Amino acid sequence: QVQLVQSGAEVKRPGASVKLSCMASGYTFSNYGVAWVRQAPGQGLEWLGWISVFNGNTHYGPKVQGRVSMTTDTSTGTAYMELRSLRSDDTAVYYCARDSPGIAVTRFDYWGQGTLVTVSS
Amino acid sequence: DIQMTQSPSSLSASVGDRVTITCQASQDITTDLNWYQQKPGKAPKLLMYDASTLATGVPSRFSGSGSGTDFSLTISSVQPEDFATYYCQQYDNLPRTFGQGTKLEIK
Hints:
The complex is a heterodimer of chains A (121) and B (107). Chain A has strands at residues 3-6, 10-12, 18-25, 33-39, 45-52, 58-60, 68-73, 78-83, 92-99, 110-111, 115-119.
């Protein structure tokens, strides 16, 4: 069955970086994209970006553009998201989700369990 | 960015009720709309895509409609497991944007 398993909770200081992982199984990793979505405590969902596993193309959301990098490792079926220059308002649960292989259509049909990132001095 | 506005923000219903949640886009998104359900402490779950197509395994009591700027999600007979928060999401333009959510609570 399709599974996305994310790395564990992180606590970071303002200005630091965090790199989250999302290990996929149960499907052909390179046939899909991976999206990242976050949810601040008690808030709604925010799209952070998308990466094509096939060719590495990326699109990033405006609030993290310039601070985020999304990558994949097809040998291990793992997607990564690195967020730099962390601020307190980056505190959130970060989700990875299986997405369409191309950017024209978005469909998050499987999700990871989420990773809590806390940014605090 | 395309703004997605859901109404109501919260809704109380009894088991067996018919409920409708609406989602309005700030510009025409044709039918490039998904609906997700999220329960507390859990990841969202895809309910509907292309505005009106049920995702795999989703009960037929859920239905979606709309095109252009106005969309709706209807639950024909609310079941106990349906009490959750619902989000719409557009994929017509980048960045992808979500509605603020509608919390369905037990009356």
